[in-house]
Amino acid sequence: MTIQILSRKDLIAKVKEKPDTYNAIIINEPGNLKEVEESFQFCKSYFYIEFWDTYSAGKDAPKIEDVSKILKWAEDKDDILVSCRLGVSRSSAIAYLIEMTRSDNAINLIDVTKHNPNLLILRHGSKLLEKNVTQPLIDLFAEKHPGSLYQQRIYAYDLKAFKG
Fold first, then answer.
1. Which domains does the chain have, with CATH numbers?
2. Contact call for residues 79 and 22 (beta carbons, < 8 A)
3. Strands (E) located in 55-95
4. Distance between CA 95 and CA 44 in Å, rounded?
5. Model confidence over 58-112: pLDDT tens digits?
6. pLDDT tens digits for range 11-36
7. 143-147, Cβ contacts within 8 angstroms, sequence gap of 24 or more
C-alpha cells in the first residue's frame, strides 16, 4: 500500500501515464472543477472534494466531516495519490492522517523542505483519531528544520488545540 503526495499537475500526469492504476483523492478549490475533471476517467477510483487551504472569512475551510469522509473512503484503498493545487498543505495533511490509520511510519511521508501540513486538517484528524497527530510533526520539524516558521506555527497551534 502506497500513498503519494502530489501537486494537481503531477497527479494528472501520473494517472494519464498509468490509467486505472491509482486511487486518487483530489482536493480542489471551490468552483475550480474544470481544471481536474479530465483526470477522473484515468483513476481506478477517486474521491473529489472542494475546500480552501486558508481560514479566511467567507472561504470554505476544511470541516471535520470532510476529513472523516476522506479517511473512511481511503480505508480499503491502496496505491493512493493525494493531491491539492501544489501538493504542500492540504494533501500532505490528508496523506499523513491516512497513513496514521495504517502504520507507525506516517511521519516518513512528510518532507520538511516541501510539505507544510494544513493545521486545521491536523486538528480535525486529532479529534477523529483520538490522539495528538501533531507531536510527531513538531519533533520532525524541530530536528530537521529547527526554527522554521512552520515549526513555530505548528507548535503554537498544537499547544492551543490540546490545552483544556
1. 3-162 (3.90.190.10)
2. yes
3. 80-84
4. 18
5. 678 899 999 999 999 999 999 999 999 999 999 999 999 999 999 999 999 999 8
6. 999 999 999 999 999 999 888 888 88
7. 144/112, 145/112, 145/113
